[in-house]
Specification:
alpha+beta; five-stranded antiparallel sheet; three-stranded antiparallel sheet; 11 helices; 10 strands; about 15% strand; globular
Length: about 325
């Protein structure tokens, strides 16, 4: 984005005071608060859908979300004649990403997620069903991931010349593939398929990408951003997604897990089946799958040193992960 991008702001009812590059666009400090200017990457309907979702959330009591700023023609997407591109502007927040080193901020984040889920309960969306429910449910997703692990394993077996990294993957994949199979079989139990059907019937919405990058702590308030992955699913999947990434950074600390589960539960009671589902989701070796899948779908002529480091850390942590699964299995 360049200076020509800012020409689009003339079609909005605010005055710019200061501009900072960030968040994939430009952060605008205006006489009407902080905004975020982004170039459009998708069709207009994509942004109209997200705008409806965020406005509905605000209408049902959760105000700290990044709603869209409509232009003078009351449209979400704006065409800029200066560079012949389309843009959106969001109401933004003057704060920082959730600090993963702060247990207080992590706790505040999951409490905010629980409040968001409560607001979701009352959201009535004027969107066609297929545009909301277009994503895979978690059983389908992990079944696909398991097949991808097998594809990578077969590819490595057939490859004649292998690097030390590829040899390490080939040696470790069968173990993690077995873990994945067991996890998928467990997730396919009737109680979990019934839970998915319940979520579909009730149009249960999830954020879909709830992680610390999409949480902004602003003057004691917790803002949740980027609802483009919002879909129908079991809401406990949001908590799982957030916790998994955090627990990897905390070496699968059961104490941190208990803390985050309790903080969510204080605001929104976790049902017994959702608690069991949370434990079942943790059993899938998702971090390992991500590393293998990244390798399989990338240029294999050169393997970044960072990838080797990540794989080694993932494997070294696995004994802690297995201890965690045994403990949380008793809880769930």
């Amino acid at each position: 984005m360049n200076e020509k991008s800012l020409e689009v702001t003339k079609q909005y009812d605010f005055e710019i005071i200061r501009v900072i590059r960030g968040r994939g666009g430009m952060i605008l400090h205006t006489d009407d608060g902080v905004k975020l200017l982004l170039e459009c990457r998708y069709a207009e309907s994509y942004y109209d859908r997200e705008s409806i979702i965020t406005e509905a959330i605000v209408g049902n009591g959760y105000n700290n979300v990044d709603t869209f700023v409509k232009n003078c023609d009351e449209k979400v997407v704006t065409y800029n004649e200066s560079d012949h591109k389309k843009y959106i502007i969001k109401n933004w927040f003057d704060g920082n990403e959730c600090n993963v080193k702060s247990i207080d901020e992590l706790s505040a984040s999951v409490a905010a997620l629980a409040k968001l889920h409560t607001a979701f309960d009352e959201v009535s969306l004027n969107i066609e069903k297929e545009s909301v429910n277009s994503s895979e449910n978690f059983i389908m997703q992990y079944l696909r991931h398991t097949k991808e692990l097998k594809k990578a394993m077969n590819y490595l077996k057939k490859k004649k010349k292998r690097s030390s990294y590829e040899l390490l993957m080939l040696k470790s994949i069968p173990y993690y593939y077995d873990e994945a199979i067991k996890a998928v079989n467990n997730l396919s139990k009737e109680k979990y398929t019934n839970r998915i059907n319940q979520a579909i019937q009730n149009k249960e919405l999830v954020h879909g990408a709830f992680n610390y990058h999409n949480v902004i702590i602003s003057f004691g308030n917790v803002a949740i951003t980027n609802f483009d992955k919002c879909r129908i699913d079991c809401q406990i999947c949001d908590l799982y997604q957030f916790m998994r990434k955090i627990l990897e950074k905390y070496n699968w600390s059961i104490e941190v897990a208990y803390k985050l589960i309790n903080e969510y539960d204080k605001v929104r009671t976790i049902t017994e089946v959702d608690l069991q589902l949370l434990g079942a989701l943790f059993a899938f070796p998702e971090k390992y799958w991500k590393l293998i899948n990244y390798y399989y779908n990338s240029n294999k002529a050169w393997i970044p040193p960072k990838s080797i480091e990540k794989l080694n850390v993932c494997m070294e942590q696995n004994y802690r992960r297995l201890d965690f699964l045994a403990t949380i299995g008793a809880l769930c």
